[in-house]
């Protein structure tokens, strides 16, 4: 019987990985997942992610599509994967998907969180792996004002690493929501869109923080949306504060779950 598609909703701590995508020498999330799948299925099984997280970026809900023999149910594959995966990767749930499912092309929304720490405790070893410690005060109105300006369909060429997208890519993304949420000890930036470009969230956060610190004028993001490149954009925020929270798919693509 033909292999069946299963979606593995996967969590990982990105601190010890050189990103998602497999590489010949360094350790990656895709590489570790494919090694586990090869052990279980006795053959090479590609693990296709909904997106390619950068080195140091975490995930609470990465969508990973695999095609495995029919003897594997979602629940049995999840249990077997979690039994042999390293302790910084964990499959949170598994879903049998329709035959036309594709983990990247079928995704309709991707959601990221970025954590900012503004209190002294942000430098604790228990927080600094997952937050960007920012000592200078931030203007809440400036933070949200800049975030409001990116909601909707825009060209984000100024917020992407140059030459990482195909030459004919329009660099357009539709931002569904972008909001700064106060939390104990700092802020959480919550953003969801149909797609994200390479380093896009980190460029956005880095620039918004500079505006909120008074180092750049309000309206900077709205102006940069018309820029032809990223030369006027602030440096990207550190990778360790970023986490892929959720990837959403059309409900009709999910056949069952466990």
Shape verdict: globular
Provide the succession of SSEs: EHEEHEEEHEEEHHEE
Number of helices: 5
The largest pleated sheet is described as: 11 strands, mixed
* Straight-line N-to-C gap: 22 Å
CATH architecture group name of the largest domain: 2-Layer Sandwich
- The tally of beta strands, per DSSP, is 11
> Would you state the CATH class of the largest domain?
Alpha Beta
Helix content: 10-25%
* Integer count of domains: 2
Question: The CATH topology of the largest domain, please?
Answer: Alpha-Beta Plaits
Q: Can you tell me about this structure?
A:
This protein has 258 residues and is of the alpha+beta class. It folds into 2 domains: 4-106, Pseudouridine synthase I, catalytic domain, N-terminal subdomain (Alpha-Beta Plaits), CATH 3.30.70; 109-245, Pseudouridine synthase I, catalytic domain, C-terminal subdomain (Alpha-Beta Plaits). It has 5 helices and 11 strands; from the N terminus they run βαββαβββαβββααββ. The protein has helices spanning 29-41, 74-84, 140-148, 200-212, 220-224, and strands at residues 4-12, 48-49, 58-68, 89-97, 109-117, 132-133, 152-155, 172-183, 186-193, 242-248, 254-257. The model has no long low-confidence stretch (mean pLDDT 95).
């Amino acid at each position: 019987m033909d292999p069946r598609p299963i979606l593995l909703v996967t969590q990982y701590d990105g601190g010890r990985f050189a990103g998602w995508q497999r590489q010949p020498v360094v350790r990656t999330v895709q590489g570790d997942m494919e090694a586990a799948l090869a052990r279980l299925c006795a053959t090479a099984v590609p693990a296709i992610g909904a997106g390619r997280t950068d080195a140091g970026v975490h995930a609470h809900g990465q969508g990973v599509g695999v095609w495995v023999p029919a003897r594997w149910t979602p629940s049995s594959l999840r249990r077997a994967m979690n039994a042999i995966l390293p302790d910084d990767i964990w499959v949170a749930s598994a879903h049998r998907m329709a035959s036309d499912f594709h983990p990247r092309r079928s995704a309709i929304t991707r959601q990221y969180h970025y954590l900012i720490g503004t209190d002294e405790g942000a430098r604790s070893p228990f927080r600094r792996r997952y937050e960007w410690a920012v000592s200078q005060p931030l203007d809440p109105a400036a933070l949200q004002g800049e975030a409001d300006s990116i909601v909707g369909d825009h060209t984000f060429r100024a917020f992407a690493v140059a030459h990482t997208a195909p030459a004919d890519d329009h660099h357009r993304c539709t931002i569904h929501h972008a909001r700064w949420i106060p939390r104990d000890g700092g802020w959480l930036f919550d953003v969801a869109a149909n797609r994200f470009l390479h380093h896009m969230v980190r460029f956005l956060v880095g620039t918004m923080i500079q505006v909120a610190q008074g180092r750049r004028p309000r309206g900077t993001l709205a102006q940069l949306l018309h820029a032809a490149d990223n030369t006027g954009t602030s440096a990207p925020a550190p990778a360790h504060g970023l986490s892929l929270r959720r990837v959403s798919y059309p409900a009709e693509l999910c056949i069952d779950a466990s």
